[in-house]
Design a protein that fits this description.
With 335 residues, the protein is an alpha+beta fold. It has three domains: 73 residues, 2-Layer Sandwich (Alpha-Beta Plaits); 117 residues, 2-Layer Sandwich (Ribosomal Protein S5, domain 2), CATH 3.30.230.10; 87 residues, Alpha-Beta Plaits (2-Layer Sandwich), CATH 3.30.70. Helix content is 27%, strand content 30%. The chain contains seven helices and 14 strands. Strands 1, 2, 3, 4 and 5 form a five-stranded antiparallel beta sheet that branches. β12 and β13 form a beta hairpin. It is globular and about 75 Å long. The chain starts with 50 loop residues before the first strand and ends with a helix.
Length: 335
């Protein structure tokens, strides 16, 4: 592909970049291969999104095509997600950063002629627990005839991680004897994972925990998958309330390249944003600053860094991990 010129090629080799016409159901990360000699290349690792904003079409015509446009963008870009909030009914889009979402919104207007309104970006916080605890969840209902019976006991422990790509919950089945039949294992796990993803105390998803199912009770007649799913969810809720929570925030890896004379101004601004300077070095006449910084403090940074350096600095930023929010900052967020 050369702008609007196309050159037909009958074969391509390693390193070639080509455009294919026809595959309608392919997505980023798929391997296209010969069915007679199947080959599967390793998929790309896609980190979890760290920022979201509400989006709303300006007209009823735009509303009709918004879903199709969002589905197209998500198919092209695996780091972009969208969903409808069950409580507010708002459509939320999520991505890797403020600039990422700005580019996608601009594409909606430029490529799809879709006019939308967006709210201010919101940081995707998470929660985790402070200490290891045990808790029991009981779901027992008797309304005449067959009832519901499920009892689940969990041990929940904090897991040091912060890795954006790690499984939020490590689930371990440690039942001894026949306290809970194996057939209910998937229901117990589903109840735990659903409760964790929904948020328990703050409304933000629970991550970096190890959950061990250590005991329980069942009834030969009244026990069911629904009962054990509900009991597991209740047990996790009680465990989190008992353990107490810590709020986690996404930490970004930031690199700023600037003329050396602005080094002091840039580092002073970064320190005010709770940044941790990892490394600085000279690249010719430019200073390269590498730091980690909370995403919540970086909204509008593109304008600030241009102002500080008369438009002569550039920067890049990518998600690195989650880290505990300082207590005084967490209180402001949750109040």
């Amino acid at each position: 592909m050369h702008a609007d010129e196309r050159i037909r090629e009958d074969e391509a080799f390693a390193g070639d970049i080509v455009a294919l016409v026809g595959p309608r159901n392919s997505a980023t990360g798929d391997t296209l291969t010969d069915t007679h000699h199947p080959l599967l290349l390793e998929k790309m690792g896609v980190p979890k999104t760290v920022i979201s904003m509400a989006i709303e079409p300006k007209t009823s015509e735009d509303r009709q095509i918004l879903g199709e446009v969002l589905a197209t963008l998500a198919r092209e870009d695996p780091t972009f997600e969208y969903h409808v909030d069950a409580e507010t009914g708002q459509t939320l889009i999520a991505g890797m950063g403020e600039l990422h979402l700005e580019v996608l919104v601009h594409r909606m207007l430029r490529d799809f002629n879709l006019s939308v309104k967006v709210d201010r970006p919101r940081v995707s916080y998470r929660e985790t627990i402070r200490e290891a605890v045990e808790a029991e969840g009981r779901f027992v209902r008797q309304t005449g005839g067959r009832g519901q019976f499920g009892v689940v006991t969990l041990r929940v422990e904090p897991r040091p991680s912060g890795d954006l790509e790690a499984d939020p919950v490590d689930f371990l089945w440690k039942i001894k004897g026949g306290a809970i039949p194996e057939e209910y294992r998937s229901s117990v796990e589903s109840g735990i994972r659903d409760a964790a993803s929904s948020g328990i105390t703050t409304g933000y998803p629970l991550i970096d925990v190890t959950v061990r199912v250590i005991d329980g009770k069942y009834h030969e007649v009244d026990s069911s998958e629904v009962a054990f799913e509900a009991a597991a969810s209740l047990a996790l809720q009680r465990a989190v309330e008992k353990a107490g929570i810590r709020l986690l925030e996404p930490i970004m890896r930031l690199q700023v390249v600037s003329p050396n004379e602005y080094f002091g101004d840039i580092t002073a601004d970064l320190m005010a944003r709770r940044a941790e300077i990892r490394e600085t070095h000279l690249r010719g006449t430019a200073r390269v600053i590498t730091a980690t910084v909370p995403l919540a403090t970086m909204f509008g940074y593109a304008t600030v860094v241009r102002s500080l350096t008369q438009g002569r600095a550039t920067y890049s930023m990518e998600p690195e991990r989650y880290a505990v929010v300082p207590d005084e900052v967490a209180r402001e967020i949750l109040d």
